[in-house]
Amino acid sequence: MTFDFFEGAAGTGKTHNLVGRAGEIVQGGALDEGHKLLALTFMNGARRRLDARLGENPAIRRRFDCQTFDVFARTLAARRRSLITPVMQAQADSLNEFNGPCCLAASLLENESVRQWVARSFPLVLVDEAQDLDEHRLRILQGLSPSCRIVAAADAFQCLYDGRDTSPLIGWLEGAGQTHRLTQVRRTTQQGLLAAALAVREGRDVKAVLTANTFNNRTSWNGSGFRLQDAPATQANTGLLAWAISNDIAQRQGPVVILTPDAGNTIIRTALSTVQTRQWTRNSGGAFGPYPHTWDRHDTEEADAMLADIALPETASCADLRELLTPLAGHAAIAQTLQRVDRLRRAHGQADFTATQVSEFVREAVRNRSRLGFRQSRGHRVMTIQRAKNREFPNVIVLWPHTATGSAEHQRRLLYNAITRAQNHCTVIVLGQGRINTAPFA
To answer: Which CATH architecture has domain 3-182?
Structure first.
C-alpha cells in the first residue's frame, strides 16, 4: 500500500499537511461504504487536537475514528484474543500495562488475516507525532502498512525521550514510501524567534543571533519576538524572578503560557505564588499584576492533587463517602465519583467501598474528562514543556531552572520545543547567573 511521510521542523505545518493529504485521498475514493479513516497518536492531548482538526475537514468529517495507540492496541487484542498464543501473552505480561497490549497488537498484526480484518474497517491510517513511537508502537504501524494506506508526520528533533535513538524509526518512515520535506515555518513570522529556535536546534550560541541590551546593570538578549535573560536562582530572592515574570506578562497582549522542564522546582513554585497575589509599581508610577494562573497538569498529577486533599479511610460506607466528598464536589471528577458510588449502591447493593476503589474512581474520572477535552482552561497557564508538546500559544515564557535534567542534547530538544510553541513572543528566563553561557543556550 502507499505511504506518505511528512517531515519538518516545529511549526512547518506537519499536521496541516497530514490532514490535507488525508482529505485528498478520501476525496479520491479511498473510503467505501462502512469504511473509516483511523487516526492514531501517542498521547490523549494530541488525539484531541487531531480529532478537532480532522473534524474541520469536510471530506473527512464523521468518517474517521481518532484513537491513541494504546486504545487501538487494547481493542485489537480483545477482539482477536483467540489468536493470542501463550508465547505472545507471556511476552506482553513481562511489560507494563501500556506496552503489554501494544506488544500483543503488534504480534497479532504479523498475521495476514488480522491485517486484512483491520483494513476492511480502516483502509486509511494517519499517524501524527510519529517520532514518539517506541519499538512496540512502531511494530503496530509496520504491521498495518502492508494492508492500509498510511499518512504519517514526524520530526526526530521533537522526540523528548532522553537517550532514545530515533534514527531507525525515521529511517523506516523515509524508506516506506514518499517523503515530503517541509521547510517553511508557518507558526510565526517573528525573525528573532525563528533565529533563536534554529540556533538551539543546530546547537549554536543563541546569544549570537540576538542583540544585547543592558539596563540597570542587567543584560538581556533580544530579537523580534524573542528575549533571553537570566535571573538569580535562590530561595531567598524569588521576588526578583516573580517580578521578571509579572513584568513580561504585563507587556503582552492576551494570555501567556509559562513553560518549565521542572514543575517541582521550589524556586519557580514560590515565584509563581507571588505572581498570583502581588501588585508591582514601576518607578514611573504605573502598576501591574497580580496575574492569576492555573496549572495544566497531567492526568496522574491532577488526580494525585485531588486525592491529597481527601483523608480516605480504609473502608467507608456510601453515606460516609457522601459526607466526606460532598464539600469537594465542585471538582467534576469528585462529583462523578459520588455519582458512581451511589449508582453501585442502588444497582448492585454495594454497601462499603475501599480507599483503593474510590481512588481509582477519581483517577478514572480525571482520565475520562481529559480524554473528552473537558479540562481545558482559559487565561494564563503554567505547564511542563512535555505537556505543551504539539500545541501553540500566542505568548510563551520559559522558566529554565538549574534542576533541568538530561543530556545536553535532551535539554536542547526541550528548549527547542518550548520556544517553538510561541506564535508572537517568547521570553526565556534562565535561573542562575552564568548558566546562560552553557548548554543548551550556547
So the answer is: 3-Layer(aba) Sandwich (3.40)
